[in-house]
Every structure is written in C-alpha cells, then in structure tokens.
Structure to design on (484 residues):
C-alpha cells in the first residue's frame, strides 16, 4: 500500500478506529458508574418506601382492629400488596449484593407482615386477647423497621459518599485522559502530516531539480529512484525514461550531424575531383585504345586501372557497396602502384571469397592501402611488403592490412584517435581521405564503436584491422535505404 489514496485511507481508518475504541470505552465506563449511582438512589427510594408502607400497613391493621369494616380491610390488603412488591425489589438487591444487614432487614419485614396477618386473622375470629398482643408486636416491628431503615439509609449514604468520591476521581481521570488523548492525537497527527508531506515533497524536489538541470541543457545525473509512493515512483520512472530518450535522441542527432559532415567532406573531395568526368573518361579510353593499338599493353592496362578507380571514386558516395567491390578497386590500385614502384613494393593478398558479400561504406579500403604504401613502405629505401588479408571470425569479418614499413611512434598512434589531427597526416593521395574519416564512417555505418584496431612498431611496420560485423541490422537498413 504505497499509493497516496491507500495511505490516506489507512491513516483515516486508524484514526477513526482509535477514536471509536476510546469513545466506546469512555461510554461503557461512564455508563457503569451511572448505573451504580442510580442503583444506590433506587435503593434509597425503596427503603424509604418500605418504611412508609410498613407504617401505612400498621395504621390499616390498627384501623381494622378498632373498627372491623370492609373498607379498612381493603386498605389493609392494598398496603400489604404494596409492601410485598417493595420487599420483592429489596430481595432482588439482596440476591445481587448478598449483604447481611439487608437480609436481616427483609427478615424483619417478613416478621412484621406475619404479625399483621395474625392480627387480622384473630380480629376475624374475634379473639381480642390475641389480636391485641399481635398488634402490639406489629407496632414494635414497624417502629423497628423505621429505625432499621434509617440505619440502612445512613449506611448507604456513607457508601454513596465513597461512590461520589469515586465518581469525582473518575471524572478527574476522564478530564486528564481527554487532555492527554487530545495532546497525543495532535502530536501523532503532526508527525504523520510531516512524514507524509516529506514522502511527497522530497521526491517532487528531486524531480524539480532534475527538471531544472534538463532545462539548462544538463542531461547528466544519476537515475532518480523513488520507493515511497506509487504515483511518484511511476512519475520518476517516466522521467528517467524521458531523460534517457532525450539523451539517445541527442546522441543520434550528433551522429547524424557528424555523418553528414563526413559525407559533405567526401562530397567536397568528390566535387574537387569532378573536373569533367565524361571528358576525362573519354580521354582515358582514347589513350588506352591508342596504347593498345601501339602494342603498349602495360600502358593500356594502367590507363584502364586509373579509369576504373576514377569512375568508382566519382560515383554516389552515399550508396553502400559490397566488400568485393572494394577489393576490386584495391586490385586496380595495386596494378597502378606496381607500375610506379616496380619492385620496391610487393603486394600480397589472402582473401576468403565467402567473406566478400557484406555491405561496407564506399572508399574504405583504398585510403588504408594508400597509407600503408605512401606512409609505411615508400619512405624505406629498400621498399617492403603490403599484405591484404580478409578472413572470418566467430562474429566479424576481419580486413587486415599489414606492412613492414617504417611504423609509427606512440605519439602518432595517439594522434590518430584525436579529432583535431584528422587532416594533418595519414591522408590518401588519390582519395584525400584520412584514417580517422574511414574509422568514423565505419562506426556510424555499423553503429558500433569497436571497428578498428591498429598495432605499430617503429622500424617493424604497421598492422591495421577492420572488424566488420557479420550481422548488422543498421548496415542492412542503410544499404536498403541507399539502394532505394
């Protein structure tokens, strides 16, 4: 139960339950005390009524003795019935309380009733001696009942004083209890209000600060985690997802911007080379045919290689090609360099033909071969060997270019990884593209950072490896988009 609604329901339910329990306990305690209070007063009234009824019964008996008329006999029986009812009430109290004085009092009332009944009986028999004696005994019993009633009432009043004191004590206790309950309730309510407000305000403050950072352009910061309230937890999760989506979108925009920058660079190089492609192709074909007719086969092949390279480099740079197309251009480039350097540079190839059907950006291998030739082997007086090795691993197609040239220093290797050194060195003559441009285009094309490895030692040579993923959804999509 971590939602705001459930917590409010829980808190209100607990408060209502506590107040109901306290109210019921106060009510039952007060009710019991009042019942005891009323029971004491009821007993006073019954005792006083018995005293009055006994006097009335004695008077009725005396009147009947003095003048045996039916009206006095009816008064006698009315007074007797009333006294028996009141005696019955006292008997119930005696059974509940089991007090000796009250039981003796009842016995006295019974004896008094018995004496009055004997008196009336002997009056009916006209036995003057006996009803006179029983009437005197009834009078003594009535007087004794009067005195005993006063004693019992006095005893009850003494007990009532204790009850009254207990009532006052309980009343004072109730006041203190209500005061403590009020203070405790206020303190608990304040504590719960502060705790509950903190559970809401703190996460909102965290979200507010993070929102201010985002509005200022700062998308960094740790992931916001909220565990207190379900609604705020959902809000924090949505906020984290939004920030991550914005970061990914910004990164994607930067990648696209960088890719467009690289493509513009290629297009600029492309435009610089586009003097008049049709005129240049026609001229090269004419020179090639002329050389062939003059039996200059080497010159004809050299011109055909130049024409192939020129046509390939001037094609649409946004269209992807297959690895076998890049390898074909490398063969043309090698034929040209063999003609130029004769025996100073030796080219070797070890190519697995099954690896040549994967997509790759245009003009990827040629700048690497050019760098190996121009910056690696050419500076050596005795030349060297350049090896193009293409093979497959478990996850990648590896294009390895190895030379035994002059190699590179650690500083030169570090410069290759820095953006500001892209155009300073290691730039191909025929393409105008540097290694950094090639590496970054591969990273953007395959959506993968680790696509390039280089190992170089001064005086021993350089080995460059391109790690081309066998399966690349991004590359395939790019190829389909370009082909369309």
């Amino acid at each position: 139960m971590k939602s705001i609604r459930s917590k409010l329901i829980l808190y209100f339910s607990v408060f209502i339950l506590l107040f109901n329990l306290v109210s019921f306990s106060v009510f039952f305690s007060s009710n019991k005390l009042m019942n005891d209070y009323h029971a004491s007063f009821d007993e006073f009234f019954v005792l006083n009524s018995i005293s009055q009824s006994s006097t009335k019964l004695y008077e009725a008996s005396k009147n009947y003795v003095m003048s045996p008329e039916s009206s006095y006999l009816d008064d006698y029986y009315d007074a007797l019935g009333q006294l028996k009812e009141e005696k019955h009430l006292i008997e119930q109290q005696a059974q509940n309380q089991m007090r000796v004085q009250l039981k003796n009092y009842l016995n006295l009332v019974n004896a008094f009733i018995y004496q009055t009944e004997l008196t009336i009986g002997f009056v009916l028999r006209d036995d003057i001696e006996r009803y006179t004696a029983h009437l005197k005994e009834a009078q003594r019993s009535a007087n004794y009942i009067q005195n005993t009633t006063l004693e019992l009432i006095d005893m009850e009043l003494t007990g009532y004083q204790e009850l009254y004191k207990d009532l006052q004590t309980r009343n004072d206790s109730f006041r203190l209890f209500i005061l403590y309950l009020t203070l405790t309730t206020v303190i608990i309510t304040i504590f719960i209000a502060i705790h509950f407000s903190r559970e809401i305000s703190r996460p909102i403050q965290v979200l507010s600060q993070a929102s201010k950072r985002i509005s200022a352009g700062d998308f960094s910061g740790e992931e916001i985690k909220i565990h207190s309230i379900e609604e705020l937890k959902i809000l924090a999760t949505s906020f984290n997802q939004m920030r991550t989506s914005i970061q990914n979108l910004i990164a994607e925009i930067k990648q696209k911007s960088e890719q467009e920058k690289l493509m513009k660079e290629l297009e600029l190089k492309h435009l610089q080379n586009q003097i008049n492609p049709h005129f240049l192709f026609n001229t090269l074909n004419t020179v090639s045919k002329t050389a062939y007719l003059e039996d200059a086969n080497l010159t004809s092949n050299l011109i055909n290689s130049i024409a192939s390279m020129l046509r390939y480099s001037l094609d649409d740079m946004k269209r992807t090609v297959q690895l076998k197309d890049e390898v074909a251009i490398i063969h043309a480039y090698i034929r040209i360099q063999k003609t130029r350097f004769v025996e100073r540079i030796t080219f070797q190839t070890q190519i697995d033909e099954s690896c040549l059907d994967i997509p790759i950006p245009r003009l990827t291998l040629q700048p690497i071969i050019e760098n190996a030739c121009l910056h690696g082997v050419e500076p050596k007086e005795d030349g060297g060997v350049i090896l193009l090795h293409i093979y497959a691993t478990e996850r990648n197609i590896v294009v390895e270019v190895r030379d035994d040239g002059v190699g590179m220093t650690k500083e030169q290797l570090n410069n290759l990884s820095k953006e500001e050194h892209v155009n300073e060195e290691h730039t191909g003559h025929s393409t105008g593209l540097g290694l950094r441009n090639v590496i970054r285009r591969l990273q953007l094309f395959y959506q993968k950072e680790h696509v390039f490895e280089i190992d170089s030692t001064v005086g021993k040579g350089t080995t460059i490896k391109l790690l081309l993923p066998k399966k690349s959804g991004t590359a395939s999509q790019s190829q389909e988009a370009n082909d369309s």
Remarks:
- Residues 128-215 form the longest helix (88 residues).
- Residues 419-426, 473-484 have pLDDT under 50 and may be disordered.
